[in-house]
Hints:
The chain has helices spanning 2-28, 32-47, 90-94, 112-115, 235-240, 265-270, 290-295, 382-394, 401-413, and strands spanning 51-59, 65-73, 80-88, 100-111, 138-149, 155-165, 169-176, 185-190, 196-203, 206-216, 222-231, 233-234, 248-249, 251-262, 273-280, 283-285, 305-307, 309-319, 322-333, 337-346, 349-358, 365-372, 377-379. It is 22% helix and 44% strand. The radius of gyration is 30 Å and the shape is elongated. It starts with a helix and ends in a 21-residue tail after the last helix. The strands form two sheets. The chain has a 20-stranded mixed beta sheet that branches. The protein has a domain at 30-128 and 136-179. It contains nine helices and 23 strands. 19% of the residues are buried. β20 (337-346) and β21 (349-358) form a beta hairpin. It is an alpha+beta fold.
Amino acid sequence: MARRQTWVVVAGGLVVVLGALWLVLVWLIPSDDDLAAHAAGELQARLGVPVRLGALHWRLLPVPAVVLEDVATDQPQAITVKKLVAYPKLLPLLQRRVILDRVELDGAVVPQLSMRALDATPRGGGSGAPPEDGATPLARFVFRDLSWVSRYGVAVIYDGEIDFDPGWRPRLAVLRRPGFTPATDLTLTRQDQEDRWAAQINLGGGTAHGEVQLQTGTDGRLVLNGQLQPRGVDVASAVSAFNRKPVIAGRASGNTVLSAQAETLVGLAQSLHTKTLFTMGASTLLRFDLDKAVRSFGKDHAGQTPLDAVSGQLDTQNTPRGMVTQFTGIKASSGALSASGHARLANRQIEAEFAVDLVDGIVGVPLVLSGPVDKVAVSVPRGAVAGAVLGTAVLPGIGTAIGARLGATLGRIFDSGPDRQPGTATPATPGTAP
Length: 434
């Protein structure tokens, strides 16, 4: 009986202690309204734009958590968050310091154009005290159903997670395209405590593994460098993974060099430059028949072009106004034709010129593509075709592109098109000289 009374007293005391602790926590932690006002102010101070919160509440059990719902920036194209749950560490929270164990985001829309207005650099205007030296302000960030919307309205959904070391250095980061086959994902793994990460990329049924590193220059700017080795990447599948229309189908391999310099991480992304030397074996040029385009003087190019091999260099340059893509040194060949040239794509406008050789003696014909990507104008000068044939006739036996291209050049000079006034330009249209 005495032992039972002892346990009753102990249990009763424990209940009293827990109840007192609960009352202390309720008294110390602010109300939902106070916390919502504080959170909105902190977000606006750090992002540089007004932020609206649909709802915010906190809970203590089973673990302390702050839940934000229906968050939106006040912008023409709002950045929205359906639900975000933050799990703060309890002891720092009672000391009015916010150190997060993890943050989980479910459902978000991030328009690329809206990111330009955000000030991504941390400001000192927040009321929360900074974490102590060596602390990790956020240990783990998990996101699901995050929709990235390009400047032209193309939406791509991502899932992923990031584990942080002190100083916001990712220890392990994973980005994936959910529900897409073949698997499309990126994994970054930090090497020891250096600012160097092993990169593993699965894309288009192939891989593009390599390494990236981050340094701080003498002027304080961040410098990003890296190398990747694409191997056996199905180009059509890789492009489709990001909701773009592929231009060519086939497997590519090569080497890619990454570089960027900026003052912030957002600036690094906006200034990223890549250079890829690539080769492709058997492939197909989709939605464009090169032979038909030449023989119809650009009036008809519907169809496809089978190719035996393609090689060249691809450069991409991110800018605040979008990506600029350039192809140089392009060489393509098949049993029926060969082609070489260059192309530039920026702001959904393409400018390209190729020299096409056909097996029946039409060599070095200039093929010009220009205009918006959804309505490309194709130009093949009639005089150039005649000149190309003339070139092969002038230098028989050499069979050679030297005479043929000389003839094509003469054909372009003497093409019977309308005279142009100096300083004026005539848009390229099908069937006319560029």
